[in-house]
Each structure stands twice: as C-alpha cells, then as structure tokens.
Predict the structure.
Amino acid sequence: MKREFRTYYLLKPLSWIYALFTSVRNMMYDRGILPATRFPIPAISVGNITVGGTGKTPHTLYIASMLKDKVTTAVLSRGYGRLSKGFLLADEKSNSNLLGDEPLMIHNRLPEIYAAVDEDRVRGIKRLLKEVQPEVVILDDAFQHRRIEPSLNILLVNRNRNILNDCVMPAGRMRETAAGRSRADIIIVTKCPDTLDGRRMDEMSAELMVHQSQKVFFSTVKYGDIYNPFTSRTLVPEPGRQVLAITGIASPEAMWSKLEGLFGNVKKLPFKDHHRFTSRDIIRIEREVQSMGPDAVIVTTEKDIARLRSCHLSTELKERLFTLPVTIRFLRDEALFRENIIEHIESFRKKQNRHV
C-alpha cells in the first residue's frame, strides 16, 4: 500500500503533462484550429474516457441490434490487436488476427450488419459509404477520435470507477480529464448493481451532467445461457461442477462472481486484456482443465472465444470449452434511450434532405 502511494506521487507530474497535452488538443478541435470531418449519414460514437472496462462492445451491440431492422447499419472499429492494416470488411473468412477480437465478436453476433475495421476512422467511413452505403455508422471506441465529428456522442462511465475522483494516465486510468464529458450528448453509467435506487441515480446524474441538454442513463450487465460455440450445446449450471474460468478482458471480476454464483468454487486463469493466445497458453489451459477431472469445463468470454478460434484446439478442448455471453439491460428509461437514438437518426435525415 505504501509502495502504491509512493508510485502514485512519482507518476503524478507525468499525468499533469499528459492532461495538459490532451486539454490543448481538445481545445484546438473545439475552436476549429484542428479540422474534424462530418459525414452525410448519422455517425454515432460509443466510447469512454478511461482505460478499458466500461462495456463498449455490449453497448455497441445493443445499439446495432435495435437499428438493424430499421436502417442499414455498419459498425466501424479500430481493430485493436489485429495483425492486419488498413480497411477490412468482415466476412465468413474473417478471424481475430485480421479484425481483432471485438469486431469479430460483433460480426459473429450480428452477421446481418456490416462490421469493418480501419485505424484511420475517416478513411474507414469513406470506404463504407463507397462500398456498402450504410444509413448509419456506429463508431466503436471513438470518443477521443476527434478527427471525426460524430452526429451523436455517447460516453460510457463505469459505475465502479468514479471519473470525478480519478486522474489521467499514468497515475490514474483516465485518457483525458473528466471535463471531456462535456462533449457527450448521452452519458451511460455502466455496470450498475440491480439494486441501485432511483434517488442515487438522480444524484449521479446531477454530478455527471455538465449542461442541461445531456441525458444520463444507467445500465447493468445481463448474462445469457452458457453455450459451446463449436457444438452449440448449452451448459446447465450445476453447483459443485469444476469450472476453469479463462479471461483476457480488462475487468473479469463480474464474470468470476457470476460463475461462482452458478457453480460455487471456480478456478481462475486470467490473462491481460486482448491477450493473444499462444500454443504454450493452449497447452497450459489443457493441463489445467485435465487436472480438474473428466467433467471439468472451461468457461470464457465471447471476446476470448474470438481469439481462441484462431488457435489450434484439440477436439477434447473444443468439447470442454464454453462461453458466457454478455448483454446489457437499462435499469430505467430504456424506451426513452431507444427513442433518443431513433429520433436522432430521423432528425439528421430531415436536416440532410433540407440541404439537398
């Protein structure tokens, strides 16, 4: 504890420098000194101002799912951790090495929408407009990507990490100061407990809002049925069953807690966020689960499955490997959130038509 305290104050000056840099950069975009590109279709940005762990992909999936039957929808990501470069559109041949784990997860969950990656988001949208003509594009993890001016900016804030009490990297976990939340049209407080009461939501809304036009919503994690992605077999939770939890995500604690509630004792094997599994890792995983008994199973995340599929897995390992899918649920005002998204798209279209 004493060492962590000392490290924090040693890193604090570097955080001040980083905060100054990001603040000046944002000011230059806000004043038009640095140009931001607008596009003729709604561009909905979903992102955060902290490092990992806010649930960007589940919220992106939620919005894409609600729009897919109404408008031609595309999701554009940077493709973090992929081995490829440039613009790529997901298809049946895509894997995590080409797309990255999160875009591949989006493509697997919603194959009826367009999922694309490009480290240059401006170029990526231009390619989408040219090749597939989407009516709306959702920008995954683009809150700091100021080269694009989104038509709607959605900021995700982890309920368990108060951005008002944190500082920027490296002493803290912030990508920029909390003042950056002023750019958000909608703020979603994520990973809330089901028991969060309305009065506390109102208090948090007042704390987070910078201007009255902002809207604040609250969401919680919702887990689906545990299933085997290779056989589609569903795993019925049995208390006492041996489970090896493999996680390569930023915040695995909620998943561990869920599995412990379903099975009891769970053995945890965590890896760093976006970890690229090696043959040595696969051997280690096989040994771990085999040592736990013939009925032991592995449960992991959909993001990790996206990366594990690119590895050489034995038949036995595939049969033991299950995934716990994650979605989100709004604690209140879900209908209002959906209305806001639809109204934004309709309003954008009307403005465009008036200018044609």
